[in-house]
Structures are given as structure tokens and as C-alpha cells.
Amino acid sequence: MLGGTFDPVHLGHLRSALELLEVLQLDRVHMVPAKVPPLRDTPQVTPEERLTLLQLGIGDTPGLVADPRELERDGPSYSADTLASLRREYGDQARLVMALGHDAFLRLADWHSPQRLFELAHLVVIDRPGCEAPLTTALAELIEGREVFSPGALMRRPAGGLLRLALPTRLSISATEIRRRLASNRSVRFLLPEAVEGRILDNLLYRRR
Ligand SMILES: Nc1ncnc2c1ncn2[C@@H]1O[C@H](COP(=O)(O)OP(=O)(O)OP(=O)(O)O)[C@@H](O)[C@H]1O
Ligand SMILES: O=C(O)c1ccc[n+]([C@@H]2O[C@H](COP(=O)([O-])O)[C@@H](O)[C@H]2O)c1
């Protein structure tokens, strides 16, 4: 699972999802837009629209799935609930991975039931340019004894490990920068898929009101 606000989805997300699929030899990557992201302000664009943009971005890419399950729940979109739902779907023995960028990882100790995340899945932290801050004490305690150093070591068990990965392509693209550009009428070409760009421009999304 790769969860996100996806406000909007961009090539940093999509390349990461594809490379996770290859490097970890996964069956599929569920990309799950958060209906109510727990630790940030309400996104500018509705969950349904962010899901539509994600579907357009993924297109027919084999192995990537635009997963609407968080849109079906009310309240904050806690990842522990999403992983529990995936665990129910795939069963106890499936190897389940939650991937997140290093910036999101740095705040993991503030998440809802962070220990439970490790009961339900492995965590894979994707290196992201410009996000090299040190770990807090709370985060260091949370991950103590969990780190492994290869995909093979991670995949021996269904859950509970932590792997930090430098994926082959590191893109310093962020949704914040894309929203800024759109708000000031600057180009976002080549930062996100053309179909996503087209829908955003056609519907005047992220324009300053
Ligand atoms: N360029 C990128 N490379 C690797 N991981 C990324 C990249 N952009 C986002 N991610 C990760 O993807 C997940 C979802 O990201 P999110 O939807 O918040 O996008 P974002 O670009 O970080 O958005 P914003 O700028 O609005 O915070 C997070 O775990 C985030 O760390
Ligand atoms: O479960 C939580 O408490 C929690 C707290 C913060 C973020 N998350 C999830 O982490 C993913 C990235 O979040 P964000 O805000 O960086 O887009 C997204 O799927 C969020 O739902 C989850």
C-alpha cells in the first residue's frame, strides 16, 4: 500500500509505486487516497476528485491499483484501519508492505496506533530528496529492533519489519510545488501525467480563487 493525499498525484508518487513493485517483487501496489488526511489541513480538492486524478494517472499501468477504500470510511483516514482492511482481504500469511516517503516517516510516532502498523505490515521508507532530518527519540524507540537491510530479509515474514530504500529514480517533485505553480498560472508539464494535467487545467482545479 502507498497511501497519500494525492493532492494531486504526480510522477514522484507513480515512479515510486512502480519501482517498489519491481524492487520488492510485489504482486501489486494499492495507491490509496486519504479521504480525511489525519495530520494536515483539508485538501483543496475533494476525495472523489483526487481519486479520479489518481485513476487517470495510473491509467492501465500493470500492477498499480487506485484503491478507493478510504473514501468509504468516515472520520480521519487512519492507515492502521486501511492496513487492517487489506490484511482481512489478503489473509494472515500474505506479506503486506506499507510504503511511505521519508518526510512522512519522520512523523510516524504521531500517527494513530503506530505499533499496530507493524503488527499489520512491514514499513518501507522511500528516500526523498531534501528530507534528511534526524529521527526523534520517539521514532527511534518505535522502530527499535525492526530494521532489516534487504528486500529478501523483509519478505521472510508477513509483517513487522522496516526497510529504508533508495529507489533507482529519486524525483524531487511535490504536490505543494505543483499547487503553487497552478495557483500562479505556471506550467506543471512533465511533473505529472498528461491526462492528470489535462483534467486539472480543463476544470480550473487549484486555481487561486
Ligand atoms: N517525489 C516523491 N518521491 C518519493 N516519495 C514521495 C514523493 N512525493 C510524495 N511521496 C510520498 O508519497 C506519499 C504521499 O504523498 P503526498 O500525497 O503527501 O504527496 P506530497 O507531494 O508529499 O504532497 P504535499 O506536498 O502536499 O505534502 C507520502 O508517503 C510521501 O512521502
Ligand atoms: O494513520 C495515521 O495516523 C496517519 C497520519 C498521517 C498520515 N497518514 C497517512 O500517510 C499517508 C501520507 O500522508 P500525507 O499527509 O503526507 O499525504 C496518507 O495515506 C495518510 O493517510 C496516516
Overview of this protein structure:
The chain has 209 residues and is of the alpha/beta class. The chain has a single domain, classed as HUPs (Rossmann fold), CATH 3.40.50. The chain has nine helices and six strands. The strands form two sheets. The protein has a three-stranded parallel β-sheet with strand order 1-2-3, with helices on one face. A three-stranded parallel β-sheet has the order 4-5-6. Helix 3 packs parallel to helix 5 (114-120). The model has no long low-confidence stretch (mean pLDDT 96). The site of nicotinate mononucleotide has 16 residues, from strand 1 and helix 3. Pathway: Cofactor biosynthesis; NAD(+) biosynthesis; deamido-NAD(+) from nicotinate D-ribonucleotide: step 1/1.
The structural domain count equals 1
CATH class: Alpha Beta
Which H/E pattern describes the elements?
EHEHEHEHHEHHEHH
Which class do the helix and strand fractions yield? alpha/beta
* Proportion of beta-strand residues: 5-15%
Distance between the termini: 34 Å
Low-confidence region ranges: none
Main sheet: which strands, in order across?
Answer: 1-2-3
Instruction: Report the principal-axis shape.
Output: globular
EC number: 2.7.7.18
Enzyme class: transferase
Domain Cytidyltransferase-like: 1-181
Pathway: Cofactor biosynthesis; NAD(+) biosynthesis; deamido-NAD(+) from nicotinate D-ribonucleotide: step 1/1
